[in-house]
Write a structure and sequence with these properties.
The structure is a single chain. The protein has about 500 residues and is an alpha+beta fold. The protein is built from 16 helices and 17 strands. The radius of gyration is 27 Å and the shape is globular. The chain starts with a helix and ends with a strand.
Length: about 500
């Protein structure tokens, strides 16, 4: 095994003594085998694997700052830290709280179906949470992929930017401030680059509880049905063909709940969320009709359907889909809250339902917004189209600028060529999200999408080659080819430096 400090020294010695001094910086593996005699003696019999390890050290990522400041609080960083400045700079934006912003308008429409005092709103919670809050409190297994640095932004080993609003669920249940709540917040995930994905988006979740110790006679089922009887009815076509529970597909938490309780809670949950659909899509229908883009009769009732689903926090669980403009679209997920979450929050006598949804996804449908990057635009031509007053306004495109496509191809290193393995350049450790982060850090919102265009595995060496196509396109102006080229060269350089790949 070669220590990192020694490897760095030996790499430096190699580049000054080798017959091909440039081969290390150029990354041409075949040139490593042309080491001069003095280099071979210096390295000893293991000079080749040492050099491969040295090469990885030579292209290591830039050092992470020792501290990060978020919302005025300073956090220590460590080897787990992977939050780029481009993400930190957007934390204060909080689109769900900006007046007249489509994300904020969508939040308010949904909240209107869950009024106080029954519901308490939590809309301004810091995005910095512990690993325990984000994963452990919700029962994520230790090997869950969501815990990986390839998926999650870590401030340090014990602290992350929340990946979902459910990170606050146990704490709010523990506070037990009201019978019900909604949380709206910005969440953070390392993700693909395209017109429907962004590393920061906004979620909304809600929960409604009944306490066995407080309802009359301890009869939760009767209390829930009584509450449901007071709710309005809707002009809605509902397709719900499956039983409330199914032993394999959608199991009852039989240790904690009776079938009577779950039947009542499921009915209350579904009717409550059907009301959300009516609130949102009735206004969307009016806007589409005004723009002559509605594909059905304005008088035709909305259609929804319930689909059995699986979520780690609820059982039984469902997805709610709405038939909109000729397609069935998933709107949200929901279910009966897992009782162990409530028990761990010290409210074991409570039972109820929970739901969660992405605000951008719904806002894109309601306002006919074609590209998720637009939500982050400060261009008045976008923002002036929306208002807190009146009905939903469908987005009107103010420009369509040409894209500039650039390809980047590179080799991943095979594990047999690395010293010790476990390096980012190894094929088995490569993650596409790392490519996305490199591109995003340089191009930001000037990149519309990044797609895997081609892949190839060399029949002799087994090495894998990938080709990605990057579409550089501004939402606000025409990019010049020179601008795109400059960004693309920086992308290629950073892919080599940060991921240790070899350009083709």
């Amino acid at each position: 095994m070669v220590e990192t400090t020694n490897v760095g020294a030996r790499a430096e010695a190699f580049t000054t003594r080798c017959e091909r001094p440039a081969c290390l910086s150029n990354g041409h593996e075949n040139n490593f085998k042309k080491a001069c005699a003095s280099c071979t003696r210096f390295m000893g019999s293991n000079w080749y694997p040492m050099l491969m390890s040295a090469k990885i050290v030579a292209v290591a990522a830039e050092p992470t700052p020792s501290k990060l400041e978020i919302d005025g609080i300073v956090y220590q960083t460590d080897s787990w830290s992977n939050v780029p400045q481009s993400i930190l700079s957007l934390v204060p934006r909080r689109l769900h709280l900006q007046p007249s912003h489509p994300v904020s308008l969508t939040r308010k429409l949904i909240e209107s179906r869950f009024p106080p005092p029954t519901f308490t709103y939590y809309n301004n919670i810091s995005p910095v949470v512990t690993v325990a809050q984000n994963f452990d409190s919700l029962g994520f297994p230790a090997d869950h992929p969501g815990r990986n640095r390839s998926d999650t932004y870590y401030i340090n080993q014990e602290t992350v930017l929340r990946t979902h609003t459910s990170a606050h669920e146990a704490e709010i249940f523990r506070q037990n401030a009201s019978e019900a709540y909604t949380i709206s917040a910005d969440v953070y995930r390392r993700d693909a680059i395209d017109r429907s994905h962004y590393p920061i988006f906004h979620q909304m979740e809600g929960a409604r509880m009944w306490d066995r110790r407080k309802v009359p006679g301890g009869n939760v089922a009767k209390a829930v049905w009584d509450d449901l009887s007071k709710m309005p009815t809707y002009n809605l076509e509902v397709d719900d063909p499956n039983p409330t529970v199914h032993p394999e597909r959608n199991p009852l938490q039989a240790e904690y709940h009776s079938i009577e309780e779950v039947e009542a809670i499921a009915a209350h949950l579904k009717h409550s969320l059907e009301g959300v659909v009516v609130e949102l899509f009735s206004k969307a229908k009016q806007a589409a009709a005004a723009a002559n883009t509605l594909e059905s009769s304005p008088d035709e009732p909305l259609k929804v359907r319930w689909v059995e689903a699986y979520f780690p926090f609820t059982s039984p669980s469902w997805e709610l889909e709405v038939f909109w403009q000729g397609d069935w679209l998933e709107i949200l997920g929901c279910g009966v809250t897992k009782q162990d979450i409530l028990t761990n929050a010290n409210v074991p006598s409570q039972i109820g339902w929970a739901f969660g949804m992405g605000l951008e996804r719904v806002a894109m449908l309601l306002f006919s917004i074609p590209d998720i990057r637009l939500f982050w635009s400060k261009d008045d031509r976008f923002l002036s189209q929306f208002s807190d007053v009146g009905n939903i306004n469908r987005f009107k495109t103010f420009s369509k600028h040409p894209g500039c496509y650039k390809d980047v191809s590179f080799w991943l290193r095979s594990s047999s060529n690395s010293a010790g393995g476990g390096l980012k350049s190894n094929a088995q450790d490569f993650h596409e999200n790392d490519v996305m982060e490199v591109v995003r850090e340089i191009g930001g919102d000037l990149v519309e999408d990044v797609r895997l265009f081609d892949e190839f595995q060399h029949p002799a060496s087994g090495r894998k080659s990938l080709c990605y196509r990057i579409n550089y396109r501004s939402l606000e102006r025409t990019l010049t080819n020179a601008e795109a080229n400059e960004m693309h060269e920086r992308v290629k350089k950073d892919l080599v430096q940060k991921l240790g790949v070899e350009m083709r």
